[in-house]
Design goal:
The chain is α/β, with parallel strands linked by helices. The chain is 33% helix and 20% strand. It folds into two domains: 2-72, 2-Layer Sandwich (Alpha-Beta Plaits), CATH 3.30.70.1140; 92-368, TIM Barrel. It has helices at 14-24, 57-61, 115-127, 155-164, 177-189, 208-216, 232-244, 274-280, 289-293, 305-315, 345-368, and strands at residues 2-5, 29-37, 42-50, 66-70, 90-93, 96-99, 104-108, 132-134, 169-173, 195-200, 222-225, 250-254, 285-287, 320-326, 340-341. The longest helix has 24 residues, at 345-368. The two termini are 31 Å apart. Bound molecules: phosphoenolpyruvate and manganese (II) ion.
């Protein structure tokens, strides 16, 4: 059960203290307080854990400061929808809104290789009216002998260049707590010229200790990729780890499943789950066409498979597209074969817009039906 308190409740007010005292007196019920500070208001939610079935919702609503009561199933307590249409399905970060009704494209480098490529990439992103990009500094690789990313050595120039090109959010994978500290330190050192969305990759979806560490900080939002060999439910529970530790600025990323049934694509594209994740949770949903498809093959219509699956995801209501581009894919140190070319960026964005417009038309058509 969740008690949603009135906006801007003062934690020092006597009514608030009275509420906590009354909750503390309830046998077998533990409480967990979540405070969400937004631009306009502060929202306080109190999660009741334990034998809440016996509690009467109407009585709980009469407690001091309580505005609404939501009964939750065991699953995804914080991020789940629980048939409640009033709780937020968006968050704002560094001036960019991420929600179940918005769309942001993160075109960028799979891996940072050098300053020149970072700058060319960011300039192209800016010139095409975009505010977000992807830049891998820490790369989890199958082979220990493969390039592992420049790590903290590239952070300062990546952030400075992002500031120069007015990039507001960079998606950047981390695989260890030290990476989080290095990113925060570099942002601080460079005067916070940009923002970072921490990416938890598919190999770490169930790295619970990493999830807890990332969840305990609420400054940076998180893109959690679906695990490539586990069920959707298991991946959604992994997202819930982040929220249960305090960070609910979470985007859920679909990136394909590892099975030979998907051949000749690198992974079996799973974008049919976009509406499923939006139905089950309040998270915005990201699709990663590059790591799903893994090649630059195209069909007889001349359209790359990467673009076909992007359109499929967006047509189904995806809220974010994470996609590999590179100024010189043959020189890329990671995933060159799947990267799109900078000259293709305007074309890619126009194609995404066609799919987005079609999605919005589909939503409007549904709303016109009177059943
Ligand atoms: C990536 O986005 O660079 C990446 C490694 O993705 P994934 O974790 O989905 O393989
Ligand atoms: Mn990659």
């Amino acid at each position: 059960m969740i008690l949603i308190l009135g906006a801007n409740v003062d934690q020092n007010a006597p009514e608030y203290k009275q509420l906590l005292t009354q909750l503390a007196a309830m046998q077998g019920i533990q409480t967990r307080v979540h405070v969400e500070r937004g631009a306009q208001q502060t929202l306080t939610e109190i999660y009741l854990i334990g034998n809440t079935k016996a509690l009467d919702a109407a009585e709980m609503k009469n407690l001091p400061c309580v505005e609404r009561v939501v009964r939750v199933s065991e699953e995804y307590r914080i991020l789940g929808r629980h048939k409640d249409e009033q709780r937020d399905t968006h968050f704002d970060y560094n001036g960019v809104r991420f929600g179940q009704d918005t769309l942001n494209v993160f075109a960028g480098l799979c891996a940072v290789d050098n300053r020149e490529h970072v700058e060319l990439m960011m300039k192209a992103v800016r010139d095409n009216g975009q505010k977000c990009t992807r830049m891998g500094a820490y790369k989890p690789r199958t082979s220990p002998y493969a390039f592992q990313g420049h790590g903290k050595n590239c952070l300062n120039y990546v952030f400075e260049l992002a500031g120069k090109y007015d990039i507001k959010v960079i998606a950047m994978e981390i695989t260890h707590e030290s990476h989080l500290n290095e990113i925060k330190e570099a942002l601080h050192q460079t005067g916070n010229p940009t923002g970072v969305m921490l990416q938890i990759g598919t190999r770490n979806t169930q790295n619970f200790e990493l999830l807890k560490i990332v969840g305990r900080q609420t400054e940076l939002p998180v893109l959690l990729k679906r695990g490539f060999g586990i069920t959707l439910d298991e991946s959604l529970n992994a997202a819930e780890y982040l929220a249960s530790e305090g960070n609910r600025k979470v985007v859920f990323g679909l990136r394909g499943m590892k099975t030979n049934m998907g051949d000749p694509h690198r992974n079996m594209v799973d974008f049919a789950h976009v509406p499923v994740v939006k139905r089950l949770t309040r998270m915005p949903v990201c699709v990663d066409p590059s790591h799903s498809v893994g090649t630059r093959q195209s069909s007889p219509d001349g359209i790359l498979d990467v673009m076909h699956v992007t359109a499929q995801g967006v047509l189904a209501g995806a809220n974010m597209v994470l996609v590999d581009f590179h100024p010189a894919p043959n020189m890329a140190l990671v995933d060159g074969p799947q990267a799109m070319l900078l000259k293709e960026l305007p074309y890619f964005l126009e194609d995404v817009q066609i799919a987005r417009d079609a999605y919005l038309k589909r939503v409007a058509l549904r709303q016109k039906q009177d059943w």
